[in-house]
């Protein structure tokens, strides 16, 4: 019960007080102990005073003191029946130490929450580191592919230049071949004419 999270807002608590409900009834309504409610109120007393106003807050504190006194008397009676020889100061010790105990438990609960939050933060940081590593790997791969693409583009450009050069060379060879064919044809005609003159005369 000490570590149970209290489902109660200051506004809801003030509304219950305005309806005439006591702290004991409010604690029963919320399924908590009077001591838990006292510890809850301790950290919110300023907010409660602002909502209730000075007079209402004083009446609430008076009611609270009466309830604490009743609890102290009951505790003293129980201790007396058990044969304890405590002094009259015992109720004051109980009054002072019980809230401190609940405060300590609340602090322990907060510590556990902080540890849990730190654990979650550590897990998120690890996930972020993994994502960072994946991102860096992807960037490195992208850089490698970019360089490879540049190399391929350079090769394509060289091949285009080589193809252009071969095309120009082929054109020159074609022109030379045509010229040679023309010269060969002319030589053949000249040789034929020369042969006719030598054989048949002019």
- What value does the Rg take, in angstroms? 51 Å
> Fraction of residues in helices?
over 70%
**With helices defined by DSSP (H or I, 4 residues minimum), what is the helix count?**
6
Oligomer: single chain
Protein structure class: mainly alpha
Key phrases:
202 residues, mainly alpha
Summarize the structure.
The protein is mainly α and 202 residues long. 86% of the residues lie in helices and 0% in strands. The protein has helices spanning 10-18, 23-30, 34-42, 45-52, 54-81, 90-200.
Tell me about this structure.
This protein has 202 residues and is an all-alpha fold. It has a domain at 10-127. Helix content is 86%, strand content 0%. The chain contains 6 helices and no strands. The chain has helices spanning 10-18, 23-30, 34-42, 45-52, 54-81, 90-200. Helix 5 (54-81) crosses helix 6 (90-200). The radius of gyration is 51 Å and the shape is rod-shaped. The N and C termini lie far apart (141 Å). The model is unreliable at 84-97 (pLDDT under 50).
Topology record:
Elements: H1 10-18, H2 23-30, H3 34-42, H4 45-52, H5 54-81, H6 90-200
